[in-house]
Write a structure and sequence with these properties.
Layout (H helix, E strand, L loop, with lengths): L23 E6 L3 H5 L1 H12 L5 E5 L5 H6 L6 E6 L4 E6 L2 E5 L1 H13 L5 E4 L20 H14 L9 H8 L3 H13 L5 E5 L6 H16 L6 H10 E2 L3 E4 L7 H11 L7 E3 L4 E5 L15 E3 L3 H24 L5 H5 L2 H15 L11 H12 L8 H5 L2 H18 L5 H20 L8 H7 L15 H15 L11 H9 L1 H5 L1
Bound molecules: D-mannonic acid.
Length: 509
């Protein structure tokens, strides 16, 4: 710890001190930039509004120790840079008490999940963190280490020797899966009987129900029969999995932004996150026990999240993906550049207003056309620096939730959604070009995708992207990619795949 580093005990002059939590009330799985710029900020503001400091957050970082190594030397504190069209502001957040890296501190995380002061587990583990197979069930291979540990712990608890010796090896393997860790934590908690709410904040349709189903599948696989009955009874009686819709554009922080904030604060913040001014959080009011007064910080608690969630996933995220793939193909680095390209803007509007919007029933009081315009204006904010490549990541995990429902509903209503078709054609071409360039795609199903792209095809041929051979090759690859299991809704007619192929010319031009 050096004096030139931000720390919660040394707050720069002229900036409000962050909240100092008195207990860990929340365990958060997946403490990336999004959580720090969203739920942690709501938690901070709720503590300021109510004076209740019992909702400190223990963050859990899954894939690497980086966030722990950034925040621990700062006592958990970090700054949020809000990058508006006309001005930027910096605020310090103290609600994160510490960050744990389960590969090295599994026991600490499990203990926190079972602790009496903890009442809520929140998750932002991204779509791929849910480890679903193409048919939506839990990929048991991904939680095998955790389930072995669960069975072993269970038997230890019952006074029986663990089946698998060598606990440390198990711990290291177990730490790769957020769902597995959660299930082990819930098993620990079941022994105390204390209720707990598991609140997912990821961009999935019916996210709470999805998570509950996966957790139950893991329990059934790990502790089948009578061994798991107590845990199942605990889940039935004492655990809830509310749905929630989260919204704030949070790009990856750049070194330039870190430098800018260092100049403003006079100290270095390795944990800095950047977000747009807009933020929204709609939470299903179905808590098993106490919760922070997030409504005091502007969150909406409601009986039914679905209309908000559908509108956000289909209008915002669906348009975002379209702009990301077509923007990347058009040579645009950022979403803001891409969405101001007239050709892309036109297709974004077509998707948003003609394809997606008519499939939605607006939540009370929401004017969907205005909401759509506001989304496009948010994308055009150049100060966030959100890149097309970042939004383009993990397409196989995002597309079904963003475009799948729009596609199915539009076809059922007798409309062919040509914006969706353009989006899918752009995604397929993105995958093809990145495969051929050797860069590859950032996607948990990358290997499958790249195997579908024909090795013989050279994009563009000798005469450029629009030549006949290039188009024919691109179409072959597109048809192979669209047949990827789980990508399009079951029963999507061949005629729609033809419509996607017909968009290739527009994509390649
Ligand atoms: C984006 C989202 O990266 C992506 O796929 O569409 O992260 C988007 O920025 C957020 O959902 C906005 O709330």
């Amino acid at each position: 710890m050096t004096d030139d580093r931000l720390h919660r005990d040394r707050v720069p002059v002229g900036i409000d001190a962050p909240v100092r939590p008195t207990a860990v009330g929340i365990v958060h799985l997946g403490i990336g930039a999004f959580h720090r710029a969203h739920q942690a900020v709501y938690t901070e503001r709720a503590a300021i509004a109510t004076g209740d400091t019992s909702w400190g957050i223990l963050g859990v970082t899954q894939r690497s120790a980086t966030v722990r190594d950034q925040l621990r030397p700062q006592g958990g504190a970090y700054a949020v840079l809000t990058a508006g069209e006309h001005e930027s502001t910096v605020e310090l957040i103290g609600s994160v008490v510490d960050v744990a890296y389960p590969a090295e501190e599994t026991e600490r995380v499990l203990a926190a999940l079972a602790a009496p002061s903890t009442h809520v587990v929140t998750l932002t583990i991204t779509e791929k963190g849910y480890a679903r197979t193409p048919d939506g069930s839990l990929d048991l291979d991904s939680v095998a280490g955790d389930l072995a540990a669960l069975a072993a712990e269970h038997e230890v608890g019952a006074g029986v020797e663990p089946r698998t010796p060598g606990g440390s090896g198990l711990e290291a393997r177990a730490a790769v899966s957020a769902i597995g860790l959660l299930v082990r934590g819930l098993a620990r908690r079941a022994a105390t009987g204390a209720p707990i709410t598991v609140l997912t904040c990821d961009n999935m349709v019916d996210n709470g129900r999805v998570l509950e189903r996966l957790v139950r599948e893991a329990v059934d696989a790990g502790l089948p029969g009578a061994e798991g009955d107590a845990l199942r009874a605990f889940l039935d009686a004492r655990v809830t999995f509310p749905c929630s819709m989260v919204d704030r554009i949070v790009p990856a922080t750049t070194p330039a932004q870190r430098d800018e904030v260092e100049r403003a604060l006079g100290v270095r913040d390795e944990g800095l996150v950047v977000g747009e001014p807009f933020a929204q959080w709609v939470i299903e009011d179905r808590f098993a026990g106490p919760r922070p007064a997030w409504e005091a910080a502007g969150a909406t608690l409601t009986k039914d999240v679905a209309p908000f969630e559908q509108a956000k996933l289909r209008l915002l995220n669906g348009t975002h993906s379209l702009v990301a793939y077509s923007g990347w193909l058009g040579g645009h680095t950022t979403i803001a550049q891409a969405v101001t390209d007239p050709r892309i803007a036109e297709r974004a509007r077509q998707y948003l207003f003609e394809d997606a919007l008519p499939t939605l029933s607006p939540p009370d009081g929401l004017d969907l056309s205005q909401y759509g315009e506001q989304i496009l204006a948010r994308f055009a904010n150049p100060h966030t620096g959100h890149t097309t490549a970042q939004v383009a990541m993990d397409g196989t995990q995002k597309i079904p939730f963003r475009w799948g429902g729009v596609l199915a509903d539009a076809l059922a209503a007798g409309r062919e959604p040509l914006g969706v078709a353009f989006g899918l054609a752009s995604w397929a071409e993105f995958v093809r070009l990145r495969t051929h360039s050797g860069e590859g795609v950032d996607d948990p199903r990358a290997e499958e995708l790249m195997a579908l792209v024909s090795a013989a095809e050279v994009p563009g041929g000798s005469d450029g992207l629009g030549d006949v051979a290039g188009l024919a090759g691109a179409e072959e690859d597109l048809r192979a990619l669209l047949a990827l299991p789980g990508l399009l809704p079951a029963g999507t007619p061949d005629g729609f795949v033809d419509a996607v192929a017909a968009e290739l010319e527009a994509v390649l031009s």
